[in-house]
Design a protein that fits this description.
- Helix 8 (523-538) crosses helix 9 (547-559).
- The protein has nine helices and 30 strands.
- The relative contact order is 0.04.
- The N and C termini lie far apart (210 Å).
- Strands 3-2-1-4-5 form a five-stranded antiparallel beta sheet.
- The chain is elongated.
- With 560 residues, it is an alpha+beta fold.
- Binds mRNA; thus facilitating recognition of the initiation point. It is needed to translate mRNA with a short Shine-Dalgarno (SD) purine-rich sequence.
- It comes from Plastorhodobacter daqingensis.
- Residues 26-92, 110-176, 197-265, 282-352, 369-439, 456-524 form the S1 motif domain.
Length: 560
């Protein structure tokens, strides 16, 4: 009877065990640590199953495992039974599943999560988020580039989840977002205490080409290079150094961007307040060249007051040269105040005005008619340029080169570097022009030769050459040419060969050209004029007298 009862109990228990469902593989189950041996924890997960888990799976990165016999833990069931008849379990996978559930909720609510940086990878770092591993890009570590991330390793700190994909197992986090948020809160608090015009102490945090960033106690302000001093500052490092404490004035606060503009020069007296009293128009002052540009040079009259000497006001004579060839940086110069615009904070200065106008000096020392000597500086198609005192030039026009030659021919006799003498014809100070004449120093042989000769005059010339087109003649040393058509009023007599060299011939002057220095002569015109005069005195061919009778009477009258 007892045996029968025992068998029934066994069958009931067996049936009960079949009816109990074993947990699904790939799920998280609770277990109890029943032993720790050989670096592993033996865990009873119930259902008459035990499994082993390496102790390192119970430790956070960089920490020792915290596990003891009797502890209840959650583990991930990979398989119900392995070759040794044990359950294949994992604490790390259980933590990961738990972490992913927690992180997804935080991501949906845009909440911060806690984690620790524990490793470096290409492009950033790995972060343990309490069981799930996330990627922290290098650009998201801090608000500024981090050169040494060592102090951040293993430290528990908050992160913001930027992106996560459970299917792919990807999580991207940011530490920078947390810092920026807290920094923005801090900035807002500090900015709330500041107001425009306030004078505060600050520490120079960084220096750039355009200015310096000053820490005002949790918030940075920009001190622009133009607001450091009233004078010109080429680079902020000239007057500031990193770590220096200084007093600055809050110039402007942008409530939207939280940008703060600072100034130092505003705490000093503005030198422009006294510029018009100190630098009267027309006065001459000493200054120092601070900057040279293509259009002129800036001259510092005093700290904070600069004026521009435009290139046109730099030299009386050097018109098309770069200002750097006239003055140099740091050179001390005398300048004259030409104009002041206090509203625009501009002073126009003149350098050449401190020296006498060289054309005025020349006009005083070289009156019209005086003789100068100079070197030929340039030869152009319209004349010579001769170098004079004080770097000025005078011009000899083609027409003033020679009495006897055409200008185009006479200019061929000169070369650059030749030293010539010339007479001063005109000095125009306003137009900065000096007219010279070389021929004025010689005698005008043409004028002397034709003295008293005018158009219509009858003169006697000597034949000097016979040519096919006419004859060459000479009058008081001046050569002229009579064309074949002007040799006689009779066509049959218009033959050059009927003349001989040395013959004296009476001719009529038809033109006096002082410019070309030539006389227009004609035998034909003389004959026509004589005939006209004879007809007027001794009769007309219309009255029946022949031309021969008239001319005969004229000749007879001449003999009487």
């Amino acid at each position: 009877m007892c045996a029968k009862a025992t068998m029934e109990e066994f069958e009931a228990l067996l049936q009960e065990s079949f009816e109990i469902d074993t947990p699904d593989e790939g799920s998280v189950v609770k277990g109890k640590v029943i032993a720790i041996e050989a670096g592993q924890a033996i865990i009873d997960v119930g259902y008459k199953m035990e499994g082993r888990v390496d102790l390192k799976e119970f430790a956070n990165p960089g920490e020792n495992p915290e596990i003891a016999v009797g502890d209840e833990v959650e583990v991930y069931l990979d398989r119900v039974e392995n070759a040794r008849g044990e359950a294949v379990i994992s604490r790390e996978k259980a933590r990961r599943e738990e972490a992913w559930d927690r992180l997804e909720k935080a991501y949906e609510k845009e909440e911060r999560v806690e984690g620790a940086i524990f490793g470096r990878v290409k492009g950033g770092f790995t972060v343990d988020l309490g069981g799930a591993v996330a990627f922290l890009p290098g650009s998201q570590v801090d608000v500024r580039p981090v050169r040494d991330a060592g102090p951040l390793m293993g430290m528990k700190q908050p992160f913001q989840i930027l992106k996560m994909d459970r299917r792919r197992g990807n999580i991207v986090v940011s530490r920078r977002a947390i810092l920026e948020e807290s920094r923005a809160e801090q900035r807002a608090e500090v900015i709330g205490k500041l107001s425009e015009g306030m004078v505060v102490d600050g520490v120079v945090k960084n220096i750039t080409e355009y200015g310096a960033f000053v820490d005002l106690g949790g918030v940075d302000g920009l001190l622009h290079v133009t607001d450091m001093a009233w004078r010109r500052v080429n680079h902020p490092s000239e007057i500031l150094s990193i770590g220096e404490t200084l007093k600055v004035q809050v110039i402007k606060i942008n409530k939207d961007t939280h940008r703060i503009s600072l100034g130092m020069k505003q705490l000093q007296e503005d030198p422009w307040d006294a510029v018009e009293r100190t630098y009267a128009l027309g006065t001459v002052h000493k200054g120092r060249v601070t900057n040279i540009t293509d259009y002129g040079a800036f001259v510092e009259l005093e700290a904070g007051v600069e004026g521009l000497v435009h290139v046109s006001e730099m030299s009386w004579t050097k018109k098309n040269v770069h200002p750097g060839k006239i003055v140099s940086t740091s050179q001390e110069v005398d300048v004259m105040v030409l104009e002041i615009d206090s509203a625009k904070r501009r002073v126009s200065l003149g350098l050449k005005q401190t020296m006498r106008n060289p054309w005025e000096v020349f006009a005083e020392t070289h009156p019209v008619g005086s003789t100068i000597e100079g070197e030929v500086k340039n030869i152009t198609e319209f004349g010579l340029f001769v170098g004079l005192d004080n770097d000025i030039d005078g011009m000899v026009h083609l027409s003033d080169l020679s009495w006897d030659q055409r200008g185009e021919d006479a200019i061929q006799n000169y070369r650059k570097g030749d030293v010539v003498q010339a007479a001063v014809l005109e000095v125009d100070v306003e137009k900065e022009r000096i007219s010279l004449s070389i021929k004025a120093l010689g005698e005008d042989t043409f004028s002397e030769a034709i003295d008293g000769v005018k158009r219509g005059s009858i003169i006697t010339v000597n034949v000097t050459a016979i040519e096919d087109g006419g004859i060459e003649v000479e009058y008081n040393g001046m050569k002229s040419f009579i064309r074949r058509s002007d040799l006689s009023r009779e066509r049959s007599e218009q033959r050059p060969e009927r003349f001989q060299v040395g013959d004296k011939v009476d001719v009529r002057v038809t033109n006096v050209d002082a410019k070309t220095r030539r006389l227009g002569l004609s035998i034909k015109a003389r004959e026509i004029a004589e005939e006209k005069e004879a007809v007027e005195q001794y009769g007309s061919s219309d009255s029946g007298a022949s031309l021969g009778d008239i001319l005969g009477a004229a000749l007879k009258g001449d003999r009487n």
